[in-house]
Amino acid sequence: MRWSQYFINTLREVPADADVISQKLMMRAGMIRKVAAGIYTSLPLGLRSMQKMEAIVREEMNRAGAIELSMPTIQPAELWMESHRWERYGKELLRVKDRHERDFVYAPTAEEVITDTVRDAINSYRLLPVNLYQIQTKFRDEVRPRFGLMRGREFVMKDAYSFHASRESLDDTYEKMRVAYSAVFHRCALDHVAVDADTGNIGGSASHEFMVLAQSGEDAVVSCPNCKYGANIEKATSKFFDADATLAPLAELAPIHTPGTQSIDDVGKFLSKLTSELVKTLVFDTDKGCVMVLVRGDREGNEIKIKNHLGAEFLEMMPDTRFEAATGGPVGYCGPVGTNAARVLADISLRGVANWVVGGNKKDTHIAGANPGRDFPEPEYGDFTTVFAGDPCPRCDTPLQIHRGIEVGHVFKLGTKYSEPMNCTFLDEKGARQPMIMGCYGLGIGRTVAAAIEQSHDDDGIIWPMPIAPFEVVVTQIGKEDNVRATAEELYQRLRAAGVDVLLDDRDERPGVKFKDADLIGFPLRIGVGAKSLANGQIEWSFRKDRVKQLGAADEVLARVIEEVTKARV
RNA sequence: CGGGGUGUAGCGCAGUCUGGUAGCGCACCUGCUUUGGGAGCAGGGGGUCGUAGGUUCGAAUCCUAUCGCCCCGACCA
What we know:
By secondary structure, this protein is of the alpha+beta class. Helices cover about 25% and strands about 30% of the residues. The model has no long low-confidence stretch (mean pLDDT about 90).
C-alpha cells in the first residue's frame, strides 16, 4: 500500500474527550473515530489491526475444534423471554421495535439464538459435543461508556458456545478453550493472567477471566506471588481473619451515647478504638427483603459475594428514604440488636469474636458488649468482604497482591442455565431426554487491541506487537531525488513480493512529518531511504521499540527485515 | 441514578460576566523559499455560535425549555 493513495488522517492534537492512552493514540493515529458515545468507526488502519486480531482468534478457535458461524445482531424478543433474560437483563439490553411494533433486541451476546439453533439441529448424544463460535458486533447500552474501545457500547466480540452430553465433556472443551485463549494472548505478546471470576449476568458455575495487566484496567485482580492463586477481586477470598479467636468473657450489653458519629471512623475516634475493634453494619435493599450485613469495621463489604450468598437478583445500598422503615433505626446508628431487617449476615471474620460494638438503632447511640445468640439472633456467617492487598493467600498464606487488569476474555461453564428453560435437550444412550450442558467463551476483539496499546506505547505513540500491527513495515522515502524514489519503490515491491505487509510512505512531506507519523502509528519496523545514506550505498532500518538506526546494503537490510517479520509471525 | 462541567470551522480553544453582527492555533488551498524529527513568509477558503422559543432597535453573549457530550461519585450506615 502507498501512503499517498491510502486513507490516514493523523491528528497533532489530542481529542478533548479521550481519557485513556489507547483511546488517545488510536484517535490521533487515525485508527478510530468517535461517532457517538461508545460508538466508533474503525478507520482503515484500525480495521487492519482488528482484522489481524480476528484472524489470530479464528486460527486458535479452529485449532481448538470450534466451528465458525454467524448469528444476527437483531434478535426476536421471544427467545429472550424464553430464557427470562428479557426481564432480567436490565437497561443494558437495547430493545427495539420493528414497523409492526414487534419487540427485538440488539444482541449483547447470543446464548438464546445459539441454543435455539442447536435444539433444532441436535437431538442425539451421538452428535455431541459441538462448539460453535462467531466474531460479531455486539451492543451493550452501558450506563457510562468510556475509555474508547475498552468500554464501548458497540463492540466486536468473539463468542463461542459449546454443548455437551456430560460434565466431563464440558470440562474437556473448557480446558481446550482456556489453552486457546492463552495462545491468542501469547501470540499478541500480551502480559496476561487467567483468574477465577464471578459469573455475573451470564450465569453458570465455574468461570475464568483473562486479564491483561495494565494501570488503566477497570478491574482489580488478586494474585498470589507464590502459588499461582488468582481471582477477580469480586470473587477473591483470603484467610485474613484469626480463625481460632478465643472467646473473651461476655460483657454486659451497654448502650453508649455517641453523638454525631455516623461513620465508622467517627465512632472509632469517639471511643478511642481502632475501626478493626468495631463492627460496621451495611444495609441492602434486595429482592429478598432488607438485608443487614455485619463486617469488621476496617473491612469493606463485597456486594457480589453478598448477592451470591442470598441468591438475589437485585441488590443495592438501602436508600436513605426507606432506611428507617426497613431497619427500625436511623442512618448511621443501625445494628443487629432489635432490628427489623429480614435477614442478618455476618462476615466469617466475626465468628467467635465476643462483645461487638455496633449501632444502637437509635439516634446518637451505639452499643458495646453485643453478643450474637444472646442479644440478637445468631447471624448467617459467610465470606462477605473484599480482599485487601497483603491478606494471606487462601491456599498458601503468602501475602496477596492486587493489580489492575483489563478483562479481555471470559470463559464460563454454563451448565443447563439456558438449555433447561429453552428446552434444548438430547436423547442419551438409554433413550432418556436430558438438557444439554453448555459452556460459553467470550473474547473482546477491540478491547484486546486497545489493551495491547495500553501495554505497549511511549510518549511518541503506539509500539505495536508485530502480529496485530496495521502494517508490519513502513518504508519511509526521505526526499524526492530520483534514486531515493526508485530505491524506496524497489524495496517496497520486493517486500510485497516476499509477502510482507508493507506501507510505502511516498507522500510529498518533510522528513520530520513522516518520522513523527510513523512513530505515532507505531509500525514495528521502519526502513528509511534517504539521499545521505544512499550516497554510501546504504539504507537504514530500525525497530519502533528502540528506534536505534542500523545501516546496511539494500539486500542485507531486506533479508534482515524479512527475517524479523517471519520470526514474529510464529 | 446523584453531583459538576461543557457545546463557537475537520481538531484544540478564546470571545459570554459588561449584548453592537465572530476570532486564534493546528489542519486545508495558492505562491515563493525551505527540506534527516510535526518549516518560514505572503495570500486565501471554511462557522444558521447544539436546537427551539423568548427579551431587545440589535443576541454566541441575557431568560426559558430541550438535546448531545464529558467528568466525578455510587461502601456511607
